[in-house]
Queue: 2 jobs
Job 1
Amino acid sequence: MKLIVGLGNPGKKYDKSKHNTGFAVMDHVANNWGIKLSKSKFHAELGMGEWNGVKVAIMKPMLYYNCSGESVRAFMDFYKLEPHDMIVVYDDLDTDIGKIRMRFKGSAGGNNGMKSIIQHLGTDHIKRIRVGISRPAHKEQVTDYVLSPFAKTDRLVFEDTMDKVNQALESFLIEPFETVMGKFNG
């Protein structure tokens, strides 16, 4: 089984925010793959199914961004998964909107959701897709920027980016990660 985790914050207040990019991507992928998301015992919205013969779980942790690792760890312990069985999708200020960056491992890079997952799993060897949201143009406070919705033109770019992430995740399920990174980075 492969676990795909999207990071975000629960509640209507955050629903359309840039910081909920991971949640938006999980909704998009679940819809495309015909997987229904519902509440689970792991403090998450979770959907399980198959894509192209591969068992897959799609997770949106519901313990707020900074505590995502608790849900991920509980699920992985229950299903006896290893970090190499998982990929995490989240927003990235340092990647331009419309672009994605994939990595095998590394630090959290200031992302508190990844920091929580790394802490709870005890490793930074976690595959990830960082989805670009760009930095604020006018040096506005980063917190206000990430918690605000996309501007109309950026929203259209983001919707195209979700399709790109969906394709990358499909490749992740059936190809070596080095191949997937070569196809989709940038």
Job 2
Amino acid sequence: MHCPFCQHVDTRVIDSRVSDDGATIRRRRECAACGERFSTLETIELKLPVIVKGDGRREPFDARKLRLGFDRALHKRPVSEEQVEAAVRAVVHQLRMTAEREVASRRVGEFVMAELRKLDHVGYVRFASVYRDFQDVDDFREELDRLERELPPGEAQLPLLDEGNRGQSHISPKKKDR
């Protein structure tokens, strides 16, 4: 492996650690020429299916795009990085398990929605609003109603709507100055 600092071809491994899930190995390396240290990640490379877009275009699967979709949906939500990484890995695993050479982008979206639904309902609805192209408030309301109907009793997440204010704004009016 070339040194990222001086481009020398001789680097040696100082330390190796396997990740908790066993999917990656982190290696600490040192350059024989300049002495700088750096880390590398080693992962298994499996061929993932080509993604077929709605307009028929085909493009290679891009895990960065997948992660970006999760990040946008979960922006400022109480979901840890570890949970997001696990969800991304779950979607990639589902893609591998299809054993197909091509997968429709709609199917990938369904995999993402299933994972978001487990993680955070607000993130799920955010993603669904773009994915399903919501046109108005009624589309949001229908999705919220469907989500609430399908939730098992005692679900650990916060309620989607305050039951007393269902369909009303959650912004309280300003109090008059005394």
